[in-house]
């Protein structure tokens, strides 16, 4: 008599040894503990990875800006030397070649980032670059946080990606994620890593998964632009700064509701809906979350996870890859954050570009009965430069309801060029600067009425 499919898979799982289960379960549990379990330390909700980053920040935080100026100088000089001299000791070593042999555009931005960082650190050159509101914000406030978060995230990320956890969770929640968001179930891990830890960590995970053949172009673009939300910890910082921390529960509830509804709508309209379902060329498709008929999601997920873990590289290779990821971020991404982030803040601080762009929001805010609409309008658009700028503008507004709306908007817009935007432009995910701006506007226009409605109800 032929065995049913579920009996076949049960037998296959029954043949899996304890050591094979352990290779999936132990690293995956460590990954969950580090990335996904919220912990409260000194009244601040974060994750274990965040505690590690904060601890190291307390110890060496004051030295990081100077250290990273040195790193940016190495990135700029090294990439210039590699492009011009074509030295064999770089070209013949895959790791060094991948770090320094980059396109001329990235070489230029590395040089600009290094120059901006040096001018800011030594308080030289034009004030527009070295001001505490432009280069100072990036070098002294943003880069230290990114440096340490990326250091620990890149080192520990294999625990989430390499040992079957994404495959197991993806299979279990696919029936929820696909109908709602047209995404594979494993994308829920990216979202959780963002909510509990950092939006930039969520993008890092998404980028890695795309480059390894687990997301299509459309899926990666959708996840990165809709699920890389700010963490609970940063949300509390925004709430305190803008003066609504006493309403944190309705505030974060509003952010979650608006974020989920926006994430349902955005993937169904251009430009995201026009992205192809092609996988990254060099690797091709590496995923199949569809559960065979007659097999339980748990059984299929467990089998997929154990198979993935059994194929994982040894500890030495995993550590080597993790170190390469850290160096790639420090040498390749941080210079772009310094260059493009400073440029974006210069535009925001020293020009009226964002003010002019915000004029159409004045009648919209008035229609939604948001007090001080003219004063609040720039906060609707300036977040494209940096996620903290709306809170800076909103902190001077008297109306509590308006400040509530601005704080919620600053967290649901997601596309900030000083962080998320630069990460995406640097990645292999096919999104352009113009597409990012369009998606930013879409998220703003979709989430604003939702947030305004909830604000009127809850306040």
TrEMBL record:
Pfam families xrefs: Gate
Assigned keywords, A-Z: Membrane, Transmembrane, Transmembrane helix
Lineage, opening ranks: Bacteria, Bacillati, Bacillota, Bacilli, Bacillales
Keyword field contains Iron-sulfur: no
The name this protein goes by in its record: Nucleoside recognition membrane protein YjiH
Origin species: Priestia iocasae
Annotated TM spans: 21-39, 59-82, 103-122, 142-165, 220-242, 248-266, 329-357, 377-397, 404-425, 437-458
Domain (Nucleoside transporter/FeoB GTPase Gate): residue spans on this chain: 146-244
């Amino acid at each position: 008599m032929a065995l049913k499919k579920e009996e076949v898979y049960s037998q296959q799982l029954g043949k899996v040894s304890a050591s094979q289960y352990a290779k999936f379960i132990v690293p995956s549990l460590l990954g969950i503990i580090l990335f996904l379990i919220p912990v409260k330390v000194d009244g601040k909700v974060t994750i274990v990875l965040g505690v590690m980053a904060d601890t190291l920040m307390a110890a060496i935080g004051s030295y990081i800006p100077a250290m990273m100026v040195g790193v940016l100088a190495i990135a700029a000089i090294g990439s210039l030397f590699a492009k011009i001299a074509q030295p064999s000791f770089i070209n013949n070593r895959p790791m060094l070649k991948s770090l320094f042999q980059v396109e001329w555009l990235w070489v230029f931005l590395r040089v600009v980032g290094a120059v901006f960082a040096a001018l800011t650190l030594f308080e030289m050159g034009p004030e527009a670059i070295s001001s505490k509101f432009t280069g100072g914000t990036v070098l002294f406030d943003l880069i230290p946080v990114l440096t340490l978060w990326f250091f620990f995230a890149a080192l520990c990320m294999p625990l989430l990606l390499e040992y079957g956890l994404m495959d197991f969770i993806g299979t279990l929640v696919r029936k929820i994620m696909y109908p709602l968001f047209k995404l594979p179930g494993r994308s829920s891990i990216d979202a959780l890593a963002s909510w509990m830890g950092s939006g930039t960590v969520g993008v890092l995970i998404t980028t890695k998964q795309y480059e390894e053949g687990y997301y299509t172009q459309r899926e990666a673009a959708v996840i990165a632009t809709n699920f890389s939300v700010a963490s609970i910890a940063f949300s509390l910082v925004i709430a305190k700064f803008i003066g609504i921390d006493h309403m944190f529960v309705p505030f974060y509830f509003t952010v979650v509701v608006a974020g989920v509804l926006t994430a349902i709508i955005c993937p169904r309209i251009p430009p995201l809906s026009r992205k192809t379902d092609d996988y990254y060329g060099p690797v091709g498709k590496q995923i199949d979350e569809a559960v065979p008929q007659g097999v339980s999601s748990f059984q299929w997920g467990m089998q997929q996870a154990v198979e993935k873990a059994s194929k994982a590289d040894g500890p030495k290779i995993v550590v080597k890859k993790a170190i390469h990821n850290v160096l790639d971020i420090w040498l390749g991404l941080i210079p772009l954050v310094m260059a493009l982030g400073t440029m974006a803040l210069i535009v925001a601080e020293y020009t009226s570009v964002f003010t002019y762009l915000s004029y159409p929001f004045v009648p919209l805010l008035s229609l939604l009965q948001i007090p001080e609409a003219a004063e609040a309008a720039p906060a609707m658009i300036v977040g494209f430069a940096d996620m903290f700028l709306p809170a800076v503008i909103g902190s001077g507004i008297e109306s509590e309801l308006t400040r509530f709306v601005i704080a919620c908007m600053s967290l649901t817009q997601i596309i900030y060029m000083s962080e998320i935007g630069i990460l995406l432009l640097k990645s292999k995910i096919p999104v352009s600067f113009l597409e990012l701006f369009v998606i930013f506007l879409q998220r703003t226009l979709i989430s604003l009425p939702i947030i305004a409605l909830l604000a009127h109800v809850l306040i």
